[in-house]
Amino acid sequence: MADAVEEALPRAVALSWGVAERPQRGPKRELSIERIIETAIEIADTEGLGAVSMSRIATALGFTTMSLYRYVTSKDDVLLLMQDAVCDIPIPPDDEVIDWRAGLRGWAAASIHVLQAHPWFADIPISGMPLMPNNLAILDWGLRVMKDLPLSEPEKMSTALLLSSYARAVGVVERDVTQARAREDTPAQRGEAFTEALSELVTDERFPYLAPLVRSGVYSDAEGEDEQDDFAYGLERILDGIQHYVDAKATGAPVVAYEPRPEPIPHDKAVREAAKARREAEGRLREARKREREAIARVRERERNAAEKAKERDAKAAEKAAKEAEKAAKEAAKG
């Protein structure tokens, strides 16, 4: 039975589950799969995933490259085992009493914490469904949190995929931004001067909804670190959506599980040209509306100026009439 399981699984998966036969250690008992993977993780943590190679690992351990192949069959095995090793994270106990929102909040946060600790994690391509024990332990944790929700098993899996994908996406963005800011040759894309320069390009006419955001400084974080935690904010909105769906199912209210995916826009030259013409027409329309607003403003300004002048003339005429009346009254008194 064990042989059948080993034969059915990829080498790295079989090693991670302990069902693959491991080579006997050498006389000095210095080399092992664990040491190989620990060394590979250290290299990736300090130099990035691109620095990980069989020869690099062997050099760091003080062995020949060929000696590593007694333990792992390829670099792909190493990458999968590295991925599983960093997923060996503390999981709350089964008897922990916590509501599902708090549980999923912690579960999603654990994913982004792995990325923060090991920025290379997301650079390993996803090759299929999770098969490694630590990956499956984390998935099992998430499903345990959802055990009492009125969701079908496929819905629970879709929910787990939604939250893990969101955490992965945000984690990658945060990692890339952090690395870009740390590079000395990268200009700081923030600050008042950068915001002013960007405001010259992002105009109300071309980007009517983005321009106010740029002027406020939020887009380039001109005032320093943004106080809002974008990951936490987005996570709460996702949980709000799950809450709405769960409540509707619990009360028997009609719900739409999902709508079919919209058909993709054909990637065709004629479509691209038509879209370009539409964007240009929209640009001309925005420019025309700008000129219209400016014309209206000028007319209103002229009307205000004319009204003020008429008011001044009326005031002067009234003042003159009052003086003439006063003069006439004095003359009449003398006579």
Automatic annotation (TrEMBL):
Pfam families with a match to the protein in the record: TetR_C_1, TetR_N
| Keywords carried by this UniProt record | DNA-binding, Transcription, Transcription regulation
> HTH tetR-type domain spans which residues?
30-90
Gene3D superfamilies listed in its UniProt record: Homeodomain-like (1.10.10.60), Tetracycline Repressor, domain 2 (1.10.357.10)
Does the keyword Transcription regulation feature in the UniProt annotation? yes
GO function term, MF aspect, one: transcription cis-regulatory region binding
Q: Does the record bear Transcription in its keywords?
A: yes
Q: Which domain of life is it from?
A: Bacteria
Question: DNA binding happens at which residues?
Answer: 53-72
Q: An example of a Gene Ontology BP annotation on this entry? A: negative regulation of DNA-templated transcription
Q: Where is this region: Disordered?
A: 299-335
Alphabetical list of PANTHER family matching this protein: HTH-TYPE TRANSCRIPTIONAL REGULATOR RUTR, TRANSCRIPTIONAL REGULATORY PROTEIN
The name this protein carries in UniProt is: HTH tetR-type domain-containing protein
Q: Which organism is it from?
A: Leifsonia poae
